[in-house]
Amino acid sequence: MRLWAPREHEAGLRAALPQDVELGRFADAEVMVPSYDTPEALEFIAGAPSLRMIQTLEAGVDWLQGRVPAHVTLCNARGVRDTPVAEWVLGMLLAHGKGLFEAAERRRWEYWQPRELAGSTVLIVGHGSIGAALARRLRALDANVIGVARTARDGLHAAAELPALLPEADAVVLLAPLTPETRGLAGREFFARMRAGALFVNAARGAMADTDALLEAVPRIRAALDVTDPEPLPEGHPLWTAPGVVISPHMAGDSPESFVRAYELVAAQVARLRAGEPLVNVVTA
């Protein structure tokens, strides 16, 4: 079997895959492991008649939807990056409550009283495996968690209830997939409903938030962003210097451990494909 993979992932995949699986950028590859949103990957997908399966290394596949031929099965990496994303969000929530963002800006000896995460209310928008992982960690720290999913289920609120829930939250975390319904979800009305001093956290997709509206909303609220619109965020963009905004370069889900899990998932999927067994994490819509 031949597997199409970018060079930066070859070593990790080689350690996980059987030796008889060939790695490279083969025109007749049956399996593809793409790098996120790269022209090289999209060009290959558009002209690869032998391709049978695309296995991404991340959960989000919005950049691939509508571009995968009908004969190809698209699978995401649900579950492999739950821990680092949940830890990144938790780190932002703790830093916000303890005043560490302000401390980095002040650079002077000035007393303040930090807040406790315990007892605060965190609204999680998007309750897949990452949202659930974050909720478990927050509840362990005695925070109050409000979960929002597309439809109400298992104690989660429906997306239609979001406007009424926003004023209740000390922090609002976006973890939903990017879809036509969630694109631009966080706009002027969204931010206006957030209470003053609350933290907006986006670890989902940059296009879920209206950048102009966010710039208008700070510093009444603060923001921790792992994703932006546009992305990469160019030098000199107003978000870099906006008061109350902390930005990381779309790396919340990356860790040595998460990549090992991703490569092991690829190996397991290849084994299933060879054996004619059902694949996991199949994206159907």
Write up what this structure looks like:
By secondary structure, the protein is an alpha/beta fold. The protein folds into two domains: 2-79 and 255-275, Rossmann fold (3-Layer(aba) Sandwich); 82-247, NAD(P)-binding Rossmann-like Domain (Rossmann fold), CATH 3.40.50.720. It contains ten helices and twelve strands. It has helices at 7-16, 39-46, 82-97, 100-106, 129-140, 162-165, 188-193, 211-217, 238-241, 256-275, and strands at residues 2-4, 22-24, 31-32, 53-55, 73-75, 121-125, 144-149, 157-158, 171-174, 199-202, 222-225, 245-247. The strands form two sheets. A seven-stranded parallel β-sheet has the order 8-7-6-9-10-11-12. Strands 2-1-3-4-5 form a five-stranded parallel β-sheet, covered by helices on one side. Strand 10, helix 8 (211-217) and strand 11 (222-225) form a beta-alpha-beta unit. Helix 1 packs across helix 10 and helix 3 packs across helix 5. It is elongated, with a radius of gyration of 20 Å. It starts with a strand and ends in a 10-residue tail after the last helix. The model has no long low-confidence stretch (mean pLDDT 96).
Summarize the structure.
The chain has 285 residues and is an alpha/beta fold. 33% of the residues lie in helices and 15% in strands.
Secondary structure layout:
Blueprint: E1 2-4, H1 7-16, E2 22-24, E3 31-32, H2 39-46, E4 53-55, E5 73-75, H3 82-97, H4 100-106, E6 121-125, H5 129-140, E7 144-149, E8 157-158, H6 162-165, E9 171-174, H7 188-193, E10 199-202, H8 211-217, E11 222-225, H9 238-241, E12 245-247, H10 256-275
Parallel strand pairs: 1-2, 1-3, 3-4, 4-5, 6-7, 6-9, 7-8, 9-10, 10-11, 11-12
